[in-house]
Design goal:
27% helix, eight-stranded mixed β-sheet, alpha/beta, two-stranded antiparallel ribbon
Length: 184
Amino acid sequence: MNTVRIIGGEWRRRLLRFPDSPGLRPTPDRVRETLFNWLGNDLRGLSCLDLFAGSGALGFEAASRGAERVVLVDNSPNVLAALELNARTLGMAGRLEIVRSDAVRFATSSQQRFDVLFLDPPFNAGWIERLAASVPAIVAPDGVIYVEAERLVEHCGDWSTVRSGRAGQVFYQLMKRGEADGTE
């Protein structure tokens, strides 16, 4: 089993265990720290969707920082088993919803809207483009999208990049609805 640690909030320094899985690459600590500085470290009252949960690092981090509701979606039985085990181990089982589904199927069938969408799909598979049309149905109009990709992504549907960075081969960006305002 591989591990990644939660970097802030109630479960700070706790380890998450996850299996090897094709395309699974947890968001590095430094990138998560930047992301949660952008979002604000206190996520109380927010609902978050981690559409390609993988290690669960983004969703567990959001829950640790007080998000009211966190939904983790993945399609791999081994990954889902690890997410369930981590949720029980940390005592988060009631605060997280773990869903087995394909990302597109979940996005097109969900009746729920979220304040924060974590979109960290396997690279070079066209997931962001396939999901762009579904984003308005699952993200609140004033919600934000965090994207990790193999390249800079300027838009996802009506959402535009307002902050971005790069760590090695990973481009990461925060998007808001409307035109990019160039804020860093």
